[in-house]
Design brief:
25% helix, 7 strands, globular, 7 helices
């Protein structure tokens, strides 16, 4: 199955606001009957367009499926962690579903996880893929950052972005658009900091410690790692600024958010 690349920022902006006209009372009631939390609603004034997201069905074929427990949810997402997958960079973007399937197999079979850890994955052409099951518009608890999986979303860039490795602009733009939309659901400024409580002493912070972290963080901000690599880490300020612009923000960011 050949998948086209996600358009650039101008095309993403042209998608407009996609939350209008939704009957929230009805959808919340359906969610309650299904035993899952209602989807987060965009915060007025700082909502951003949802970028196109390729569903799991595009990469998780019947042979790769396995029984897994129901998704777990948090009440909201207030931060995003950016990762790289530490895999080869010279892939054809049409092969991205196969690569994601391999990552899934490695994490579920070799490591024994119940699902792929990342909530989203982005290829070098800027295509965004749904990762962990549970609904892209919901606060799905991931398995991507020791100690800080709660109230966060993990976005993985397909490739290895150590020092000196070019980071494709399409990938940078897609991560910014995804961050703007996801954090916009809770009114979080991508340039701000937030307070998160570590749930695991394998992180940089002992379990129970409340840490102040960037709302758009690199994996290494919360865990002892070089991920997402020096090259992608260097692009995070640009991603924060672009995401804030896509949310319609011009004022200086709030430096510390509430936990």
């Amino acid at each position: 199955m050949l998948l086209g690349c996600v358009p650039g920022l101008a095309a993403v902006a042209a998608l407009g606001l996609c939350a209008g006209g939704v009957d929230h009372a009805a959808t919340d009631a359906l969610a309650a009957r299904a035993g899952r939390p209602a989807a987060a609603r965009p915060a007025a004034g700082h909502r951003a367009a949802r970028p196109p997201v390729v569903p799991r069905a595009a990469w998780l074929d019947d042979l790769a499926r396995h029984a897994q427990p129901p998704p777990r949810y948090d009440d909201k997402v207030v931060a995003v962690f950016v990762h790289h997958t530490d895999s080869p960079n010279g892939y054809d973007c049409a092969d991205a579903p196969r690569i994601i399937r391999s990552l899934y197999t490695g994490q579920t079979a070799a490591r024994g996880w119940d699902d792929i850890g990342y909530n989203f994955l982005v290829d070098r052409c800027g295509t965004v893929y749904e990762g962990r099951a549970g609904g892209v518009d919901r606060a799905v608890t991931g398995a991507h950052t020791q100690g800080f999986n709660h109230r966060t979303a993990g976005i993985a860039a397909l490739g290895t972005f150590t020092a000196g490795v070019p980071v494709p602009q399409a990938m940078v733009d897609a991560i910014a658009a995804l961050t703007a939309w996801k954090l916009g659901l809770t009114g979080t400024d991508p340039r701000s900091t937030v307070r998160l409580t570590s749930s695991n002493s394998l992180s940089r912070y002992a379990a129970g410690t409340t840490a102040t972290l960037p709302a758009l963080a690199g994996h290494r901000d919360g865990y002892m790692t070089t991920c997402p690599g020096a090259a992608l880490t260097a692009r995070l300020p640009e991603i924060r600024a672009t995401a804030a612009r896509l949310q319609g923000r011009t004022a200086a960011p709030t430096l510390t958010g509430t936990p």
